[in-house]
Specification:
Length: 452
């Protein structure tokens, strides 16, 4: 099958560490990064009897992460049946909403259904440390070796074949394996320092800042109008990102709320906006502040997310090496956890096949890419491949049309003494004063082309 993923033609930069002795023994697979992608790969590999070394730079699973997100139930259930009986989940998501905001208004699109309470459910809110620890525990129970405080620095090559990794001080050591899997997150520094990929373009990386605010379960359920144990996930566009295309979100946990807002690194660079100021815009909005008033701040952090889409995916397969998860730019809108775990699973399948044939060549390992292409992972990313370019081409899209929709709603709801026909004409003139008919039609046509 012909690959549809952009090829990276940059020559390999080779690293030799002959002066540093390899650790005794050789692993079948070394995985750099114990996030969802790396830990999932480690679990399925170890379950099949392969010797797996999982290296994590943090002091514990999820040490570099905070907050949480929504976990897609069906996708996770297919990999880990009835996972909700093992994993600490926060709330079953029954309420899904999108808010289009201005400085004084909010237009809501909301769907709430108790049907989502039926197994296998739809989505759960989860905290990242809980998810990461659960996955690493499963990998270790299956037989993988997990080492914390091990920051992988480079991949070691013999000619063009990956044969091991070096770990930075204080360990200052090396490990060898037949296969290396890089799962070190967005903006993979290992792949970059090893000459596998070029530096990620800032327009393809987004920075999100987040806070977790503690509230009682009763307060959360009352303020978000939720039945006991049910959760809400709310996506917000417009006002939070100060005129730029970007997003904010609210996730409800058992006893806390997670607020999240961000946009591309290029937008931050161009505007000079402090990322925390976006978070303050959300927190202090008069229509949002009541949701977390009297709450206690318990966590603050940030995260880089690859949002370049399908055409920003780097080469994923090299002789003796695979790239998975965020390091592979496998994020599709709100889909991140599930794509990461499935990429780890597919990488494991390719590694198992390579081990059986004792062939770790690029050609043999390309099964990983084939599995991605034939699955929902790259099919869905390809279907959304035009979105990233669309958002760059129309940088005002979220902000302007949030304002126009809110203005139309306000004028429609406001009672006037004029006749209804005159009112409709008035509303129409008001809206085309915000955006000309020609530009409006052009943007509508571009939107249709992107989503069709």
């Amino acid at each position: 099958m012909k690959s549809t993923v952009r090829q990276n033609k940059k020559p390999l930069k080779l690293f030799y560490r002959r002066s540093q002795a390899m650790q005794p023994g050789k692993y079948d697979v070394i995985i750099a990064g114990a996030g969802p992608a790396g830990s999932t790969a480690a679990y399925f590999l170890a379950r099949e009897g392969l010797s797996v070394l999982l290296l994590e730079r943090g002091q514990y699973p999820g040490a570099k992460s905070c907050g949480g997100a929504a976990l897609i139930a069906e996708h996770t259930h297919r990999l880990f049946p009835n996972f909700w009986d093992e994993l600490t989940v926060e709330r079953i998501v029954t309420d899904q909403a999108y808010w289009l905001m201005t400085e004084d208004s909010l237009f809501a699109i909301r769907y709430n259904s108790m049907r989502f309470l039926s197994s296998p459910y739809n989505r759960f809110t989860v905290k990242r440390p809980h998810l990461y620890k659960w996955l690493t525990d499963k990998a270790v129970a299956a037989g993988a070796t997990l080492l914390f405080n091990h920051n992988v620095q480079n991949v070691i090559f013999e000619q063009t074949q990956a044969v091991g990794v070096t770990v930075s001080p204080p360990q200052n050591t090396s490990f060898s394996a037949d296969l290396i899997i890089l799962a070190d997150g967005a903006n993979s520094l290992i792949a970059e320092s090893s000459g596998l990929i070029t530096k990620v373009n800032s327009q393809n990386l987004s920075l999100y800042v987040k806070e977790t605010i503690a509230l009682s379960p009763e307060a959360i359920e009352t303020r978000f109008n939720l039945p006991s144990g049910c959760g809400s996930v709310i996506g917000i566009i417009g006002y939070p990102t100060a005129g730029f295309n970007g997003t904010a979100s609210i996730h409800t946990f058992t006893d806390s709320i997670n607020i999240n807002v961000g946009m591309s690194l290029r937008h931050f660079s161009q505007s000079g906006i402090n990322p925390n100021s976006l978070l303050e815009r959300v927190k202090k909005h008069p229509l949002l502040e009541p949701y977390w008033s009297d709450g206690k701040l318990v966590e603050y952090g940030s995260q880089m997310i690859p949002e370049g889409g399908y055409y920003a995916i780097p080469e994923l397969v090299y002789p003796g090496l695979l790239i998975v998860g965020d390091a592979a730019a496998l994020v599709n809108g709100t889909h991140g956890f599930n794509l990461a775990m499935w990429s780890g699973f597919f990488a494991a399948q390719a590694a198992i096949a390579a081990k059986k044939s004792r062939d770790f060549s690029q050609k043999k390992l390309s099964l990983y890419k084939t599995l991605l292409q034939e699955s929902f992972v790259l099919e869905d990313m390809k279907a959304n491949s035009k979105i990233a370019a669309f958002e760059r081409e129309i940088p005002y899209y979220f902000n302007l049309y949030s304002k126009m929709i809110n203005e139309a709603a306000y004028l429609s709801a406001k009672v006037y003494t004029m006749p209804k026909k005159a009112k409709r004409i008035y509303i129409f003139k008001k809206l085309i004063s915000m955006q000309s008919i020609s530009k409006l039609l052009r943007d509508i046509w571009k939107t249709i082309k992107v989503i069709r």
